[in-house]
Amino acid sequence: MTKSGKKSAVTAAQQLLLKKLPGVDHILEIAKADQELKNIPQSVITASVRQVVDHLRAKILNHQDFLSEALTDTVILKQVKSVAKSAMTLNLTRTINATGVVVHTNLGRSRLAKSAIEHITTVSEGYSNLEYNLASGKRGLRYTIVEDIICEISGAEAAMVVNNNAAAVLLCLDTIAGNREVIVSRGELVEIGGSFRIPDVMAKSGAVLKEVGTTNRTHLFDYKQAINDQTGLLLKVHTSNYSIVGFTSDVGLEELVDLGEQHHLPVMEDLGSGTFIDFSKYGLSREPTVIESINTGADIITFSGDKLLGGPQAGIIVGAKSIIEKIRQNPLTRALRIDKLTLAALESTLRLYRDEEKAISAIPTLQMMTCPIDKIEKKATALAAMLNQTDDSRLTTHVIDSASKAGGGSLPLFELPSKCVGLRIKGMSAAIIEKTMRKNTPPIIGRIEDNMYLMDMRTIQTDELPEIANALLTCLKAAAADS
Ligand SMILES: *Cc1c(COP(=O)(O)O)cnc(C)c1O
Fold first, then answer.
1. C-alpha of residue 6 to centroid of ligand 1, in Å
2. How far is the CA of 126 from the centre of ligand 1 (A)?
3. pTM score, whole prediction
4. 173-182 tens-digit pLDDT
5. Among 183, 165, 176, 116, which Cα is nearest to 305's?
6. Ligand 1 test: best mutation among 161, 162, 170, 196, most atoms within 8 Å of CB?
7. Ligand 1 site: residues with CB under 6 angstroms?
8. pLDDT value at residue 129
9. Spatial distance between the Cα atoms of 318 and 157, rounded to a whole number of angstroms
10. Average pLDDT along the chain
11. Which of 296, 314, 304, 218 is nearest to 255 (CA)?
12. How many whole angstroms separate alpha carbon 22 and alpha carbon 476?
């Protein structure tokens, strides 16, 4: 039964409880004197008190079993504090990534380098020359702030940045192809998480998708045969989050560029996760670099700022000056423009690439990607030791071999050997451990395998280990309360 239950249905026992239930004003009065609630806005306190009192009243009317001690001022105030505190907690919060997926889209993709964070702070604390040319004293373009550094480290003729790579692709298709046909291999009609699908983006841009080849095999003659007087662009999409294996064949960017030249057609590549680092040097599998793509002579290339690049969310467009010029003038550009905080972080991140060694050590994404296994193992042993200090016989910890992933639609088949710390608590299921860790402050996101809670150490920072140990204590307390 709900609140709408007939009055006559209220029993004598319920009436007694209702009488005992303190009024909102009374609780508000006590809340006023409470030190812990001192810094919480009155509106939040009032709403919290209402919520708690209403909830208790509903419970009484629903004949839910509960002790009348639940109606004392102290108990109610405690609940009010908990409700008010959770209302004051920011929704977007730092989270510990124990998944081992380095570029985890749901967990915010890339952690920023220190210099990028500092740059954001300086630029946002004061005014900046975002669109002001300090040399001429005239209006400047925000897009040019990172153009020189992008050209310097990539060898591109011109560059431009927008909100994200999806925006970059949309903008390029709209500018270059217009309403004409864009030829793409069927094996490259990718969908990436969060509903970015090449055919859909194409439709929005007004360009007409012309699929060629088959899912597993596309040849140069497929492109050739599809070219007609309606063709506006040849597009190559890096199949970043999957791999077609077995009987396969695709046309390389270089061959497409040749074909484009023969037919006076522009060639574009959506690289997805662009990187300036050749990961094969570090024992990882090869991911095409931005520089290699530029060297093919392709007219335009787009990639993300926050995937393997390790910077903020952004879409980077590099290529021919004449095309970049046209893109700048497209009215869509204004709607997709990058903001100043992103530009600050992006400029600082890109500058680190002037020295590859520096980039690897200062950009967290690169650091985690190339972290040697013995370092990861050391972290795992340190965490296990820290957890075992609790000296609780219900707890067992394990250091086990595992595999982490690059994520973010890069190196799809490649698994990075890693180490996990596994937890089992007697009397507590792995699912409950997972939930407790997830609800911790800060939340810890791990996974369950073989009924064991696992934390991959590749994506965990050393200074996060004490926080994880604290969360475990919360788990053990909860397990104790349960048993
Ligand atoms: C990730 C990706 C995109 C979208 O990039 P965002 O920066 O997330 O907008 C587009 N194309 C490919 C191939 C991708 O991998």
1. 58
2. 32
3. 0.91
4. 999 999 999 9
5. 165
6. 196
7. 164-166, 169, 190, 192, 196, 237-238, 240, 270, 272-273, 304, 315, 409
8. 97
9. 7
10. 92
11. 296
12. 35
Substitution site in 161, 163, 201, 270 for ligand 1 pocket (most atoms within 8 Å of beta carbon):
270
| Ligand 1 center–CA 306 separation, angstroms | 10
Q: Which residue has the higher pLDDT, 47 or 190?
A: 47
Q: CB of 479 within 8 A of CB of 394?
A: yes
Question: 197 alpha carbon to ligand 1 midpoint, in Å?
Answer: 9
pLDDT of residue 217: 87
| CA dist 68 → 16, 44, 274 (Å) | 10, 26, 62
Centre of ligand 1 from the C-alpha of residue 476, in Å: 41
Q: Which of 183, 184, 185, 162 is nearest to 172 (CA)?
A: 162
Domains of the chain: 12-88 (no CATH), 96-103+370-482 (3.90.1150.180), 114-362 (3.40.640.10)
Q: Measured from the CA of 305, which atom of ligand 1 is nearest?
A: 7
β-sheet with 315-319: strand ranges across: 158-162, 315-319, 300-304, 267-272, 231-237, 181-185, 208-212
Expressed in angstroms and rounded, the spacing between residue 310 Cα and the centre of ligand 1 is 14
- What is the residue with the minimal CA distance to atom 6 of ligand 1? 165
Among 194-198, 278-282, 303-307, 389-393, which stretch is predicted with the lowest mean pLDDT?
194-198
HSE, side-chain direction, 13 A CA sphere, residue 397: 20
**Amino acid symbol at 90:** L
| DSSP code per residue over 354-384 | TSHHHHHHHSHHHHHHT--HHHHHHHHHHHH
What does DSSP say about strands 138-139 and 132-133: parallel, antiparallel, or unpaired?
antiparallel
Q: Of 22-31, 87-96, 324-333, 411-420, which gets the smallest average pLDDT?
A: 411-420
- CA 102 to ligand 1 center in whole angstroms: 16
- In DSSP notation, 252-289 reads -HHHHHHHHHHTT--EEEEEES--SS-GGGGTSPP---
Tell me the C-alpha distance between 118 and 134, whole Å.
22
Of the candidates 324, 233, 317, the residue with the CA atom closest to the CA atom of residue 274? 317
Distance of CA 221 to the CA centre of its chain: 39
Query: Could you tell me the distance, in angstroms and rounded to a whole number, from the CA of residue 224 to the centre of ligand 1?
Result: 27
**In whole angstroms, what is the distance from residue 20 CA to residue 142 CA?**
64
Q: Which atom of ligand 1 is nearest to the CA of 169?
A: 10
Q: Whose CA is nearest to atom 3 of ligand 1?
A: 272
- Cα 240 from chain centre: 16
* Ligand 1 atom with least separation from CA of 239: 13
The residue written with tokens 């209302």 in the block is: 87
